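Closing statement on the GDP-alpha-D-glucose sub-project.
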Amino acid sequence: TFLDDAEVVVSRLIIVSNRLPVSLDGDAERGFSLRQNVGGLATAIGPYHKVHRDCLWVGWSGIDLDKYDAEQIRSIREAYARRRCVPLFLAHDEVAGYYSGFSNDTLWPLFHDFSHEAVFEPSTWGMYQHVNRLFAQALEPLVHEGDTVWIQDYHLMLLPQMLRERFPRLPMGWFLHVPFPSPEIYRSLPWNRELLDGVLGADLIGFHTVDYARNFLSSVELLLHIRADDEGRIPMTTDRYATVDAFPIGIDYDLYKRTARSTLAKAMKRGIEEVSGKRPGRRYATSLTAESNAVAEAITKEGTWWSHYAHEELPELTLARSAAAEYKPNKVVVSVDRLDYTKGLPERLKAFGRMLEKYPEWTGHVTYYLLATPSRENVDTYRHLKEQVDQLVGQINGRFSLLSWTPIHYITRSLPIKPVCGIYAAGDVALVTPLRDGMNLVAKEYLACHDGRDGSLVLSDMCGAANELTEAFIVNPYDTEAMCEALHSALEISPAESRRRNIAMQARIKARTAAQWSATFLDALGQVTNEGLADRRLR
Ligand code: GDG
């Protein structure tokens, strides 16, 4: 097997996902190393895999096979094996069809209610079937008596049934990290029945919310004419059920709370507060006082600033000066997303621009730190989205900037976790407004970084997290006016009221961590398979 040369304990739990939690770094000369991946799945199950020494993770390596010789592949495998990971190597056309094609161009948009973006292409469907089969073949020699297999997400919907055919009694779970659409949307997929049959190979089928679970059950009823009982159990054969339930995912609360207090995160937070004029800093103390902004504003309005600069008694200037006396303290707005069209970045930027227009008193006094991590850059739709976001940021900055203030700080690189937590901690308001999102971990991470402190959350009603974080400013992410108003209110809220809301939400997130999520799912899986076995013995 892949593990011959490494000291790895024979596994009890095998996690299977499209990508592994670590990616290859370095090269043959410097030696291969592995770095932690960014993204919801790695963040959520990574900690479980790290602490459970008997847990093995199987997934695509993400590397281009053509770049390495056999010897190098061997040492890459060994590097992965030391992290209890088994990498799969896929050829270029396999990646194009299964990953970029069917997973990203068909299932991702369809499941996020973007049916107009979904591509239905028989050849990518063929490759999706083929790669799911490759996963099944790779797993076959790894699975032993007593193991449990937990398959993740929409990339591997056929795998449960493929494994079931090989291992009729293997306890197997499948969890979907994205929404499951309504049956009316789902039925438009030409291969809808095949995918449902594939998933139903699992004993336990998990979703983030009761709504997604209900959509799945309705689709099974509509398309396969099988009805679940009141406990969400779908009868499969005489001796097996597939049970459907909701398991809302959580975060490692203490990790985010702790990281936000690390020296680096604190330094980052301080830097942001200085630059935004929230805290007097060495470099920006004079240029960003309320009065100098008011002066700059009056001068900018006049256009020919040099002719007025020396004029003491300009009426606009006098007005601006008296307004400066009533200015609010400066504020920071933050957001962290993968640059994905489901995250609603253009809509959010329009709402931010609208707020500066509708409430000009915020000009010079609110700075938006927008971290948009690159994602799926080789897909056209994502490239267009990047252009659109670049343009909107440019337009807003161009239109509203003062001499000493820029409204949006835009970062399109991936940052390590400490600066990310620094950004969260610096935010008086977090704007988390996806158009559709399975759960959304960012909202929860922001709150953990504000443990026991103030800081407001503006949250889309189109994500799973909105079911739990009910004290947030909940908005329809398509409604620019509503988002603009919610942002304004979130900026105006008193620290005491925002703390009160946060404490309620934080208590809920603390009680449902990522570790508990994994444990709950696996317990439930153990239970449904034991029940199944008991039933079988009875017959
Ligand atoms: C899928 C579902 C579901 C982002 N940029 C950086 C960075 N991140 C981290 C965040 C967060 C994660 O990535 C993103 O998680 P989300 O939940 O917001 O979204 P998806 O990636 O779309 O995840 C989603 C999730 O799976 C889990 O089931 O909630 O609905 O779509 O953890 O912090 N982390 C670092 N640097 C960055 O630049 N270090």
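The two ends are 38 Å apart (CA to CA). With this model delivered, the sub-project is considered complete and its resources will be redirected to Aim 3.
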